[in-house]
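Per reviewer request, we include the raw input and output of the structure prediction for the construct analysed in the revised manuscript.
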Amino acid sequence: MRGASVPAELVEELGSAFRTDDPGRCRELAAAVAQQLLETRAVPESIWHPLGFYRMEFGADSAGDRYAFHVWPAGMRSTQEPEWLVHRHVWPLKSFVTLGRLRDDQFDEPAVQADEVGARYLAVVVPGKSTLVRTGEELALSGLESALFEDAFYEIDLNRFHRTTVLLDELCITTVRIGPRSKPNSDVLGDVDGPAEVAYERRPVDLDSRIHALRELRSAAD
Protein backbone atom coordinates (compact mmCIF):
# COMPACT_ATOMS: atom_id res chain seq x y z
CA MET A 1 0.00 0.00 0.00
CA ARG A 2 2.55 2.55 -1.15
CA GLY A 3 1.60 6.15 -0.61
CA ALA A 4 -2.17 5.45 -0.66
CA SER A 5 -2.77 7.15 2.70
CA VAL A 6 -0.17 9.92 2.49
CA PRO A 7 -1.71 13.08 1.01
CA ALA A 8 -0.02 14.26 -2.18
CA GLU A 9 0.52 17.73 -0.73
CA LEU A 10 2.48 16.24 2.17
CA VAL A 11 4.84 14.46 -0.23
CA GLU A 12 5.22 17.67 -2.27
CA GLU A 13 6.15 19.57 0.90
CA LEU A 14 8.74 16.93 1.69
CA GLY A 15 10.19 17.33 -1.79
CA SER A 16 10.47 21.08 -1.19
CA ALA A 17 12.30 20.48 2.11
CA PHE A 18 14.79 18.26 0.25
CA ARG A 19 15.35 20.86 -2.46
CA THR A 20 16.02 23.60 0.11
CA ASP A 21 18.04 21.40 2.50
CA ASP A 22 15.76 22.29 5.41
CA PRO A 23 16.47 19.76 8.20
CA GLY A 24 13.86 21.07 10.64
CA ARG A 25 11.08 20.95 8.08
CA CYS A 26 12.17 17.55 6.80
CA ARG A 27 12.09 16.17 10.36
CA GLU A 28 8.60 17.59 10.93
CA LEU A 29 7.30 16.19 7.64
CA ALA A 30 8.81 12.74 8.25
CA ALA A 31 7.01 12.68 11.60
CA ALA A 32 3.77 13.76 9.88
CA VAL A 33 4.10 10.98 7.28
CA ALA A 34 4.71 8.42 10.03
CA GLN A 35 1.66 9.69 11.92
CA GLN A 36 -0.48 9.45 8.78
CA LEU A 37 0.62 5.88 8.07
CA LEU A 38 -0.10 4.83 11.65
CA GLU A 39 -3.47 6.56 11.83
CA THR A 40 -4.69 5.00 8.58
CA ARG A 41 -3.13 1.61 9.36
CA ALA A 42 -1.40 1.77 5.99
CA VAL A 43 2.02 0.60 7.16
CA PRO A 44 4.06 -0.08 3.99
CA GLU A 45 5.18 -3.62 3.33
CA SER A 46 8.92 -4.17 3.43
CA ILE A 47 11.61 -6.78 2.93
CA TRP A 48 15.16 -6.83 4.26
CA HIS A 49 17.76 -5.30 1.97
CA PRO A 50 21.00 -7.27 1.46
CA LEU A 51 22.93 -4.32 2.94
CA GLY A 52 21.28 -4.78 6.33
CA PHE A 53 18.41 -2.27 6.47
CA TYR A 54 14.83 -2.23 5.25
CA ARG A 55 12.87 0.32 3.24
CA MET A 56 9.30 1.57 3.63
CA GLU A 57 8.28 3.47 0.50
CA PHE A 58 5.33 5.83 0.93
CA GLY A 59 4.90 8.12 -2.07
CA ALA A 60 6.14 10.07 -5.08
CA ASP A 61 6.07 13.76 -5.96
CA SER A 62 5.01 15.46 -9.19
CA ALA A 63 8.61 15.40 -10.44
CA GLY A 64 8.63 11.60 -10.30
CA ASP A 65 10.98 11.28 -7.32
CA ARG A 66 10.00 8.59 -4.82
CA TYR A 67 10.24 8.86 -1.03
CA ALA A 68 10.91 6.21 1.58
CA PHE A 69 12.22 5.54 5.07
CA HIS A 70 15.37 3.42 5.42
CA VAL A 71 15.52 1.68 8.80
CA TRP A 72 18.44 0.09 10.64
CA PRO A 73 16.81 -1.34 13.82
CA ALA A 74 18.88 -1.38 17.00
CA GLY A 75 20.35 -4.84 17.58
CA MET A 76 19.04 -6.31 14.32
CA ARG A 77 20.48 -6.53 10.82
CA SER A 78 19.90 -8.94 7.96
CA THR A 79 23.03 -8.44 5.90
CA GLN A 80 24.05 -10.63 2.98
CA GLU A 81 26.90 -13.08 3.43
CA PRO A 82 29.59 -12.38 2.43
CA GLU A 83 29.13 -8.85 3.73
CA TRP A 84 30.03 -6.73 0.70
CA LEU A 85 28.87 -3.21 1.54
CA VAL A 86 30.61 -1.11 -1.14
CA HIS A 87 28.14 -0.53 -3.98
CA ARG A 88 26.91 1.89 -6.66
CA HIS A 89 23.23 2.68 -7.21
CA VAL A 90 21.02 2.58 -10.29
CA TRP A 91 19.44 5.91 -9.28
CA PRO A 92 20.55 9.11 -7.50
CA LEU A 93 19.84 9.18 -3.76
CA LYS A 94 19.57 12.00 -1.28
CA SER A 95 18.98 11.17 2.37
CA PHE A 96 18.17 13.03 5.56
CA VAL A 97 19.31 11.28 8.75
CA THR A 98 16.10 11.73 10.71
CA LEU A 99 16.89 9.57 13.74
CA GLY A 100 20.27 8.33 14.96
CA ARG A 101 23.49 8.56 13.04
CA LEU A 102 25.42 6.78 10.31
CA ARG A 103 28.76 6.85 8.58
CA ASP A 104 29.01 7.12 4.82
CA ASP A 105 32.25 6.39 2.96
CA GLN A 106 32.47 7.40 -0.69
CA PHE A 107 34.96 6.15 -3.26
CA ASP A 108 36.40 7.40 -6.52
CA GLU A 109 37.05 5.39 -9.66
CA PRO A 110 39.53 4.95 -11.22
CA ALA A 111 41.72 4.88 -8.15
CA VAL A 112 44.58 7.26 -7.63
CA GLN A 113 45.59 5.15 -4.65
CA ALA A 114 43.71 1.87 -4.31
CA ASP A 115 41.98 1.64 -0.92
CA GLU A 116 39.43 -0.97 -1.98
CA VAL A 117 40.15 -3.64 -4.60
CA GLY A 118 37.82 -6.38 -5.79
CA ALA A 119 35.64 -7.87 -8.48
CA ARG A 120 32.65 -6.06 -9.94
CA TYR A 121 29.33 -7.85 -9.41
CA LEU A 122 25.94 -6.94 -10.84
CA ALA A 123 22.87 -7.14 -8.58
CA VAL A 124 19.98 -8.95 -10.26
CA VAL A 125 16.75 -8.50 -8.30
CA VAL A 126 13.56 -10.54 -8.63
CA PRO A 127 10.67 -10.67 -6.12
CA GLY A 128 11.94 -12.05 -2.83
CA LYS A 129 15.49 -12.66 -4.01
CA SER A 130 18.59 -10.86 -5.21
CA THR A 131 21.61 -12.44 -6.86
CA LEU A 132 25.07 -10.94 -7.25
CA VAL A 133 26.55 -12.05 -10.56
CA ARG A 134 30.28 -11.75 -11.07
CA THR A 135 31.51 -9.87 -14.14
CA GLY A 136 34.95 -10.18 -15.69
CA GLU A 137 35.93 -6.74 -14.42
CA GLU A 138 38.13 -5.91 -11.44
CA LEU A 139 37.82 -2.59 -9.63
CA ALA A 140 40.29 -0.41 -7.74
CA LEU A 141 38.70 2.40 -5.72
CA SER A 142 40.16 5.36 -3.86
CA GLY A 143 38.64 6.57 -0.61
CA LEU A 144 37.26 10.01 -1.44
CA GLU A 145 35.50 11.12 1.73
CA SER A 146 34.17 9.68 4.96
CA ALA A 147 31.73 11.48 7.24
CA LEU A 148 29.46 10.84 10.21
CA PHE A 149 25.94 12.22 9.63
CA GLU A 150 23.35 13.06 12.28
CA ASP A 151 20.30 15.30 11.71
CA ALA A 152 21.78 16.16 8.31
CA PHE A 153 21.41 15.61 4.58
CA TYR A 154 23.86 13.64 2.46
CA GLU A 155 23.79 12.77 -1.21
CA ILE A 156 25.17 9.92 -3.32
CA ASP A 157 26.21 10.73 -6.87
CA LEU A 158 24.88 8.24 -9.38
CA ASN A 159 28.39 7.32 -10.57
CA ARG A 160 30.02 6.97 -7.15
CA PHE A 161 30.59 3.86 -5.05
CA HIS A 162 29.80 4.19 -1.36
CA ARG A 163 29.35 2.26 1.89
CA THR A 164 26.94 3.13 4.70
CA THR A 165 27.38 1.72 8.20
CA VAL A 166 25.36 2.01 11.41
CA LEU A 167 26.52 0.65 14.77
CA LEU A 168 24.64 -2.56 15.56
CA ASP A 169 23.29 -1.37 18.91
CA GLU A 170 21.93 1.90 17.48
CA LEU A 171 18.68 2.74 15.70
CA CYS A 172 19.00 4.83 12.56
CA ILE A 173 16.20 5.98 10.25
CA THR A 174 16.75 8.09 7.15
CA THR A 175 14.18 9.81 4.97
CA VAL A 176 15.21 9.17 1.38
CA ARG A 177 14.51 10.77 -2.00
CA ILE A 178 15.00 8.30 -4.88
CA GLY A 179 15.55 9.70 -8.36
CA PRO A 180 14.85 8.11 -11.74
CA ARG A 181 16.45 4.78 -12.62
CA SER A 182 19.35 5.17 -15.03
CA LYS A 183 20.55 1.59 -15.65
CA PRO A 184 19.33 -2.01 -15.16
CA ASN A 185 21.61 -3.18 -12.35
CA SER A 186 23.50 -1.76 -9.41
CA ASP A 187 27.20 -2.59 -8.93
CA VAL A 188 28.73 -4.30 -5.90
CA LEU A 189 32.41 -4.58 -5.01
CA GLY A 190 33.03 -8.24 -4.18
CA ASP A 191 36.09 -10.29 -3.31
CA VAL A 192 38.67 -10.74 -6.04
CA ASP A 193 38.37 -14.51 -5.64
CA GLY A 194 34.61 -14.50 -4.97
CA PRO A 195 32.20 -17.06 -6.44
CA ALA A 196 30.41 -16.69 -9.77
CA GLU A 197 27.11 -15.94 -8.01
CA VAL A 198 25.89 -15.08 -4.53
CA ALA A 199 22.15 -15.45 -3.79
CA TYR A 200 20.28 -13.66 -1.01
CA GLU A 201 16.74 -14.47 0.08
CA ARG A 202 14.98 -11.23 0.96
CA ARG A 203 12.83 -11.93 3.99
CA PRO A 204 9.74 -9.85 4.89
CA VAL A 205 10.00 -7.46 7.83
CA ASP A 206 7.45 -8.17 10.55
CA LEU A 207 4.64 -5.68 11.15
CA ASP A 208 5.62 -4.96 14.78
CA SER A 209 9.08 -3.82 13.71
CA ARG A 210 7.64 -1.50 11.06
CA ILE A 211 5.12 -0.02 13.49
CA HIS A 212 7.87 0.53 16.06
CA ALA A 213 9.98 2.41 13.51
CA LEU A 214 7.06 4.65 12.54
CA ARG A 215 6.32 5.40 16.20
CA GLU A 216 9.95 6.40 16.71
CA LEU A 217 9.71 8.67 13.65
CA ARG A 218 6.46 10.18 14.88
CA SER A 219 8.33 11.53 17.89
CA ALA A 220 11.24 12.84 15.78
CA ALA A 221 9.85 16.38 15.65
CA ASP A 222 9.42 16.63 19.46
